[in-house]
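WARN  no MSA supplied for this record, continuing single-sequence
INFO  ligand: WQD
INFO  echoing inputs
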Amino acid sequence: MSVLVTGGAGYIGSHVVRLLQQRGTDVVVVDDLSNGRTERVGDAPVVEVDLGTDAATPALARAFAEHDVDAVIHFAARKQVGESVAQPARYWSQNVGGMANLLQAMETAGVGKLVFSSSAATYGAPSTPVVREDGPAEPINPYGQTKLVGEWMTRAAGVAWGLRAANLRYFNVAGAGWDDLGDSAVMNLIPIVFSALDAGQAPAVFGDDYPTPDGTCIRDYVHVLDLAQAHLAALDHLATDDRPYDTFNVGTGTGASVLEVLAEVRAVTGVDVDPVVNARRAGDPPQLVADVSRITGTLGWSATKSLRDIVTSAWEAWRR
Ligand code: WQD
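INFO  complex generated
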């Protein structure tokens, strides 16, 4: 038996691959290597294919059969909000089309368990201080829309042919579980700030006039290793018969503002981080924090690492 991990050579996927390997599970990785790197997955076999293309179906069928695959963890997707606004068709084709190819191949091969990377972007700009899975999901960009559709697709496959799925809605993932698996893309706040520090530039704060205590946006930062552990908990949960929910927030339940993150960066790096305040970034909700009671109560998972752990591990990996 093995677990097939799509996007397993990427930042989050490679953390899950390593945890699976550590607990003795055989892993096969499917990745188009557009952002992924094979050196991240150890000795796991890598099938190089883009799930959004026609080549995906035969490649998956072969991988399922050759490796006796019992479950899939599906990360492979495009994940940049701004890019999704500029190129919506590409996001629908890649994220939804890739998911359709995957589900079709799973049904054909009789692979019946799936953990799906969903996103807090499915909530859009919520009006509540914390968000619950049973509250409104009104994504405000094509990226979040494709993730919400992905959740609908897993549910429909459950009805149609008995797929057992868990949709994990990630909040703001950062940090590194191992120095060689850090987030090498400069797309999110913490790596953006590190990159600015390296360049001797002032990091930018996107707006300080939000209705929050210090005026900057509040997010729920979750350590990538905690998030990776949530995938193992979800996978184990799919093996049980009692599965009351299929969608879970994965966050800490505690928010931090942009200025609080910068204060942590200052404390960890010793560099005097003196930001400039820019205009608000379009589409940023003032606050996005997870209610974690469902995942804690149902999967028995909760985050163990602090914002300090996140920034410290991210910085160590970044330095490397
Ligand atoms: C965090 C905060 C910015 C850069 C995105 C996706 C979301 C999820 C996580 C996966 C915001 C502020 C940022 C900068 C800043 N991904 N900021 N200066 O937008 O909360 O979430 O990643 O599913 O779906 O939307 O993350 O890291 O871009 O921003 O002030 O230079 O930092 O305004 O408040 P975001 P982020």
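The longest strand covers residues 113-119.
INFO  checksum written, moving to next record
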